[in-house]
């Protein structure tokens, strides 16, 4: 829903910056963030003017061994409250749920009993009916909802448009463009944004973007979408996220011209927490194998394994990707 557009020097009051460090970043370290990290990130985001902070996933402990993951894989109410209290701030709290990986009827309380404000449902195109059912359930409990359609670079435009029509007719508040493989270029993001925004204009929906940095384009793609009128912008501190990572929160805080956003708190957090996290062995960010999976629109799992094994035979990896095609 294009309420307004702007330019590089203007401030769009409709923009919402969402920090997903503990959710997408949690994929890097099995969500093993300390309470000190979570509390400081929360306070940093509040001071920096971030609009929404995503704490992690709502996953089912029947499907995932709690001994192998930190608490933010499951985002229990008491754990979130231990960090935010009653969250008496302007910043909203979000969590994500994957289709088929959580029993929402058991996991989701009524909004009046929760400090969570938004549920983001993640789904592939063929899972849209199930995703909408999940979103409708969360909406009925009083929450804002978003639907993140993953891996759109693998879908035919006609299929995507049909799915967006169904989402548009639903009660979902925000529809997200997700470049899961980091394979899209700004010119393509412009076209995709227009497709989503047409649906947003038609049905009164907000549009968001979640970009990955395989080709070092996450920031470029995010601000390109923003220039087109996309309002909900995802980012993570130091770009922490699966594989090549995401658009950097600190870059967005520097780019967005609304005076409410401040980069200084983020810079202090980077020094105090993100730098030590990297030094402790957590690995994410641009690397040649991610570039190659991005170029060939391939899932980054093979690149993650390549890096984990300490390999540097890039041409052999390239040839394996070509063979996969």
What does this molecule look like?
This protein is an alpha/beta fold and 325 residues long. It folds into two domains: 16-279, Aldolase class I (TIM Barrel, Alpha-Beta Barrel), CATH 3.20.20; 288-324, no CATH class. 41% of the residues lie in helices and 14% in strands. The chain has helices at 21-24, 35-48, 77-84, 104-107, 128-140, 157-168, 186-203, 218-228, 249-255, 264-279, 288-295, 301-308, 314-324; strands at 16-19, 52-57, 92-98, 118-123, 144-149, 174-179, 206-211, 232-235. The protein has an eight-stranded parallel barrel with strand order 1-2-3-4-5-6-7-8, surrounded by six helices. α7 (186-203) packs parallel to α8 and α11 packs antiparallel against α12. The protein is globular and about 55 Å long.
Q: Rg, please?
A: 19 Å
Portion in beta strands: 5-15%
The count of helical stretches stands at: 13
Order of helices and strands: EHHEHEHEHEHEHEHEHHHHH
- Mean pLDDT rating: 95
Structural class, from helix and strand content?
alpha/beta
Q: How many structural domains can be distinguished in the coordinates? A: 2
Low-confidence stretches: none
Can you list the strand order of the major beta sheet?
1-2-3-4-5-6-7-8
Helicity, as a percent range: 40-55%
SS elements, strand count: 8
Largest sheet, described in full? 8 strands, parallel, barrel
Q: What is the fold-level CATH name, i.e. the topology of the largest domain?
A: TIM Barrel
The coarse silhouette is globular
* Second-tier CATH architecture of the largest domain: Alpha-Beta Barrel
